[in-house]
Amino acid sequence: MHYFRYLKGELYAEDVPVRSLIEEYGTPLYVYSHKTLTRHLKAYNDAFMEIPHIICFAMKANSNSAILRLIANHGGGADIVSGGELYRALRVGIPPEKIVYAGVGKTDDEIRYALSKRILMFNVESEQELERINDIAGQMNVIAPIALRINPDIDPETHPYISTGLRMHKFGIPIENALEYYRLARGLENIELIGVHKHIGSQITKVTPFVDALQRILVLIESLKAEGINLRYLDIGGGLGIQYKNESPPHPKELAQKLLPLLKGLDITIVMEPGRSIAGNAGILLTRVLYLKKGEDREFVIVDAGMNDLMRPTLYDAYHHIVPVRKNRRKLITADIVGPVCESGDFLAREREINTVEHGDCLAVMSAGAYGFSMSSNYNSRPRPAEVLVKDGEHYIIRKRETYRDLVRGEMIPDFLDK
Length: 419
Ligand code: LLP
Known about the structure:
Blueprint (H helix, E strand, L loop, with lengths): L3 E4 L2 E4 L2 E2 H8 L3 E5 H14 L5 E6 L6 H9 L3 E4 L2 H9 L7 E3 L6 H9 L4 E4 L2 H14 L3 E8 L21 E2 L3 H9 L4 E7 L10 H19 L6 E3 L16 H12 L5 E4 L3 H4 L3 E12 L4 E5 L8 H5 L5 E3 L7 E7 L8 E9 L6 E4 L20 E6 L2 E6 L4 H5 L11
Parallel strand pairs: 4-20, 5-6, 5-13, 6-7, 7-8, 8-9, 9-10, 9-11, 11-12, 12-13, 15-17
Antiparallel strand pairs: 1-2, 2-3, 4-14, 14-15, 14-19, 16-19, 17-18, 20-21
Helix pairs in contact: 2-9, 5-6, 8-9
The structure holds ligand LLP.
């Protein structure tokens, strides 16, 4: 659910006509709805109200400071995967005791940084990482709180590039070795074992993989108890899908209905790491039509947003709904909607049926709030778009459009090249 809709043929973001945003800020432009973001957060909080839980927003989905501050204001924490994300999270006031840190390649500096800030826990992905964290904690004279990320070998039935919980993936520790790793961790001096973590993939549109994976983890928790290892946190990861096209993913309430009976009475705090299901449908990308071009066997609508602004179609062949900012009854055409970047893979949609467009028309790429801006780049030396947040009929710029000067910030020309 979101708050982007048509009123008298004009697309609105909540109560603001997006046309007015385009006039003020130009295109390409990311626009987010405050009401949608808070609604999604509340949906999770309400669904899991009966048990102690922390919602750690997977900030890789959208790491804009204003959005993170909004999450913090609503009691949310952060799931981070780098020192940069930790920096962003702390800067906007996300409490360290609500920060969990995953990722297969944490560097020494990143480990030191996270230890010094006393985050809730490291989600550890390998034996070597465990030892590294133990050593660094020892040098710093602190105890590192950790969970082991367990790979439960469950097929989330999603796109192979965003599935993570199978034996073949680089993530986590195989479930059959889990006990052995916990025993090893218990023996390490500077480690405190406080949790278990799993995350099986993203854009999951069924409840079953979540239930199956959780059941496997619960068996593990029981075996650990029998060995005297009592965990305080169970991090069930993220991954709940959203509607891009005609999927009908479960609502957090449905997920909770299936998971709560398994979790109640466990005496454990549940950590969740939703990203896409919080931010995905809370954002759109606005773009302007530059040209219409007839190819040999198809038409091309060339717009001013490219794969550098929204990478998902190129990278995953992902579908995003694309709608006109002003509804019309022009004839339907089937076209590829492509960007200005010099790559054949630079498209936002292929063989898409849309009402024909003219130079200057504006289009909205829907469901772009997660893994949109956060995956954008400056490829082709394109300044990255501005981002705007809409709330209660007002709009707020939350990231300025980059300038050409921004593109070269940090670059240096050695003296020997002068002349
Ligand atoms: N927790 C961990 C450990 C993760 O690796 C991820 C996502 C999440 C939570 C959040 O998953 P979500 O709730 O957003 O599904 N760039 C891809 C998605 C990559 C997801 C990576 N990990 C895309 O655009 O579809």
